């Protein structure tokens, strides 16, 4: 991303899109009063987040017993209810489905490749499904402190061990096929990237014609195989992200407040919610709605507008499709592919 002399002035920035992850599948239902269990309560949670200022909803679903659902029929039911309850909210289904262990000591793992491919068949279809690129460690315990898990199920050593060893499976044969299925179904992939090497892989997929469409992504700074908390690493990722991409910051625990403040100031977008933290900036419990309200407050203090539902759809380029590799490169802001025999850096020539 390029920064001009006036890029940090709020009147030159896109309105802030707030992404919220209010369902927290890694938590036991007893871990927080803010965890919705019944279908009615899960839908109401989305309404409350919308009313607070969030315009992108990261969707997971719980069964009636409080455990994370692995049944696509429950996702279909949830999506249908959400389309009625929050019609202008961008619905983003978590590509992991539910990675939570079903029993103590069981592995925390994502569903099978075939099951995850079925997300392309959700009906009604969501606006987005998240996708990781390249198989990666996802040790969510690495940056957790005793205070972060106090009073929750994650004090259980068996669960800690399960989440410590969790891996995100996304080998090339899987993510190439998944991108094809999502785009064929009219679902926008939302890339969840934890380092520059993963961004480079996405660029190669685009240059080779595997993916044609908008580049909407999260910089995932959760440690344990993904990016850590050093702002210098975040700035390098920002620098390497092309100007036509849409970049959201995602981190965890109390770090979401200082890092999201930096993101808001720089014109990026933010993610909050109890999937990322149960706590506020001083260690007090904070609901997803309260976290959204804090992001709205910070944006207003910086005089940056908060996106409406229509504005979020425009910024996220929902429904946009590109017809060629060249169009995709141009709209995202990458240099064109090298023509045979061409030397030097390929440049776009003004018409």
TrEMBL record:
The keyword Zinc applies. It comes from Variovorax robiniae. Its cofactor is Zn(2+). It comes from the Bacteria. InterPro entries: Aldolase_TIM (IPR013785), BKACE (IPR008567). This is 3-keto-5-aminohexanoate cleavage protein. The keyword Zinc applies. Keywords: Metal-binding, Transferase, Zinc. PANTHER family: 3-KETO-5-AMINOHEXANOATE CLEAVAGE ENZYME, 3-KETO-5-AMINOHEXANOATE CLEAVAGE ENZYME-RELATED.
């Amino acid at each position: 991303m390029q920064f001009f002399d006036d890029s940090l002035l709020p009147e030159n920035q896109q309105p802030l899109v707030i992404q919220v992850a209010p369902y927290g599948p890694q938590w036991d239902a007893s871990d927080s009063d803010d965890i919705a269990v019944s279908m009615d309560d899960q839908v109401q949670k989305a309404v409350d987040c919308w009313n607070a200022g969030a315009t992108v909803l990261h969707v997971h679903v719980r069964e009636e017993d409080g455990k994370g659902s692995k049944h696509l029929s429950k996702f279909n039911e949830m999506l249908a209810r959400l389309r009625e309850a929050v019609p202008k909210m961008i619905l983003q289904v978590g590509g992991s489905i539910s990675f939570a262990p079903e029993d103590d000591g069981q592995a925390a793992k994502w569903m099978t490749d075939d099951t995850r491919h079925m997300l392309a068949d959700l009906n009604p279809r969501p606006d987005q499904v998240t996708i990781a690129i390249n198989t990666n460690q996802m040790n969510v315990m690495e940056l957790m402190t005793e205070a972060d898990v106090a009073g929750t199920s994650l004090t259980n050593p068996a669960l800690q061990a399960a989440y410590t060893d969790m891996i995100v499976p996304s080998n090339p044969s899987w993510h190439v096929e998944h991108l094809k299925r999502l785009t064929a179904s009219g679902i926008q992939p939302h890339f969840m990237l934890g380092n520059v090497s993963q961004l480079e892989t996405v660029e190669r997929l685009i240059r080779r014609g595997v993916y044609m469409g908008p580049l909407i992504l999260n910089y995932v700074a959760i440690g344990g195989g993904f990016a850590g908390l050093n702002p210098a690493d975040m700035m390098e990722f920002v620098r390497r992200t092309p100007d036509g991409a849409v970049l959201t910051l995602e981190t965890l625990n109390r770090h979401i407040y200082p890092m999201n403040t930096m993101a808001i100031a720089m014109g990026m977008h933010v993610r909050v919610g109890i999937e990322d933290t149960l706590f506020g900036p001083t260690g007090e419990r904070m609901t997803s709605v309260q976290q959204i309200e804090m992001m709205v407050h910070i944006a207003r203090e910086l005089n940056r507008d908060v996106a409406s539902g229509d504005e979020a759809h425009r910024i996220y380029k929902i429904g946009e499709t590109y017809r060629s590799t060249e169009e995709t490169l141009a709209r995202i802001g990458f240099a064109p592919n090298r023509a045979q025999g061409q030397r030097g850096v390929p440049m776009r020539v003004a018409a």
